[in-house]
Amino acid sequence: MIDWLFADENLPLVFAVLMALSVILYAVLDGYDLGVGLLLPMDNAEQRDSAIASIGPFWDANETWLVLAIGLLLVAFPAAHSEILHALYLPATFMLIGLILRGVAFDFRAKVSVTQKRQWDYLFKLGSLIATLTQGFVLGMFVMGFEYTVGGVFFSILSAFGVATAYALIGSTWLIMKSEGELHRRALRWAKYSGAIAFAGILAVCFINPLINSFVLERWTTIPMAYFIGAIPLLCFSMFAVGYQVLKRLPLEGHRGDWVPFLMTVVVFLCCFAGLALSFYPYVVPGQLTIYETASAPESLRIMLVGALLVLPMIAGYTVFAYTTFRGKTTALRYY
Fold first, then answer.
1. Cα 216 from Cα 222, distance rounded (Å)
2. What SS3 class is residue 326?
3. How many helices (H) and strands (E) in the chain?
4. For residue range 250-282, what is the model confidence (pLDDT) as tens digits?
5. DSSP at 281
6. Cβ atoms 272, 233 nearer than 8 A
7. Nearest-angstrom CA–CA distance, 230 and 245
8. Phi/psi of residue 289, each to 5°?
9. pLDDT tens digits, residue range 42-60?
10. In the list 57, 99, 109, 235, which could disulfide-bond 326, CB 3.0-4.6 Å?
């Protein structure tokens, strides 16, 4: 196994898998806390406190996976990093502004007077919206090959709202799992609405993607890959169908099964990511650059792989520890 990992011909694929793992973990983990920020109920201070308390122990560490993904892109595929950042300077800048705004608002809301806290809650919500929309725009530009055409920008704008809806979905299912009372009931409603919109958005992408990318159409219609790719939307859409029935039956006595919608949403995210990865592999810049063309020298990749194999278990271990320690329903938010 070690020999396979460090073989020259396999190193680009290994780093691509590590980068993909970092991206999907970021999308799921930071996705739900961005979604909570989007859904922050501005008409009820107690519910806002409860919603923010539900992500308090996790949200900052969740962004570690984004840093790791960008770092791996830089060191393993420098040519692709240059090409992507050149095309995404402005969206990346706005995303950083949104993430910084969230961090500042999260800290300040706990330190200002009660009369001013609502203003910082609005800024937290705004920062979540900016970060979410820009991430969706970046995803749309990736699918379009980072080409700023009228069609490409229009598709990316639609993608921005689609990702915002998906984050709202996973954020609402997180609140179902972590909250009680009226916030729990509101989260159930939010999950139904956002789930319906997310379903329509994913279905639209399934039709549009092969129409605008000829190599995607070929990948989707070539045996045996077509069988694997065909199974992904089948699983994804079945999660929506079953998930809606689950939402209709919640809440159950003792809040049994509150974790099920979140788990099913995670499966939806995994399906979407797997579909994109299989559709565009081995391209890191669709239609232009592959992971093999842009990879660093094998000697450099070997050294960096040793570091990655040391760092990844530490990040994963901390993540597991945090989620295990703060499992269960959210208690009142306290600052010491």
1. 10
2. coil
3. 15, 2
4. 888 888 889 999 999 999 999 999 999 988 889
5. T
6. no
7. 24
8. -125, 135
9. 989 899 999 999 998 888 8
10. 57
